[in-house]
Design goal:
The protein is built from four helices and five strands; from the N terminus they run ααββααβββ. The protein has 143 residues and is of the alpha+beta class. It has a three-stranded antiparallel beta sheet with strand order 3-5-4, with no helix packed on it. A two-stranded parallel ribbon has the order 1-2. The longest helix has 12 residues. The relative contact order is 0.11.
Length: 143
């Protein structure tokens, strides 16, 4: 979905400043895609991981360089959380009450302690919560 839009978003006649900037960023950043159906395909600046997710993600994490960011895929997020491969969370809480959606932490069967690093409230009402994985063990007691 991102590949179909962002590489050419800046070329559209009604491209916004954000579209132009994000399109340039997207073309220049290294990307990692978790997919079994794309196995064997080749995209510019893209690594496709179809197997050995733990080994390959840990290999990427051990390289020098910037952080690995994940955008938009609940399925990938759930897989990476279940494999304990996410070190930090940036959660954006939008001021909208909805009765439906994909729960972020629904597939996690054991508690993961997190430490709050920072918060930021935007003028739009959106609140950003930045957490990192905590190394301490926790015990959940039933009430």
């Amino acid at each position: 979905m991102m590949q179909a839009y962002w590489p050419t978003a800046a070329d559209q006649p009604n491209a916004t400043k954000h579209d132009i900037e994000h399109s340039q960023w997207y073309k220049n950043v290294d990307k990692v895609v978790l997919s079994r159906s794309m196995q064997g395909k080749s995209l510019p600046r893209t690594t496709i991981i179809s197997d050995d997710v733990v080994g390959k993600i840990n290999g990427l994490k051990s390289r020098p360089g910037k952080d690995i960011l994940m955008f938009g895929s609940p399925g990938a997020a759930h897989s990476l959380m279940g494999l304990d491969l996410i070190d930090e969370y940036w959660l954006f809480v939008n001021p909208i009450v909805r009765g439906v959606g994909i729960p972020l932490f629904a597939s996690i069967n054991c508690p993961r302690p997190l430490s709050l690093l920072s918060t930021h409230a935007f003028s739009s009402g959106v609140v950003c919560l930045n957490y990192q994985k905590d190394s301490k063990e926790i015990t959940i007691k039933e009430i």
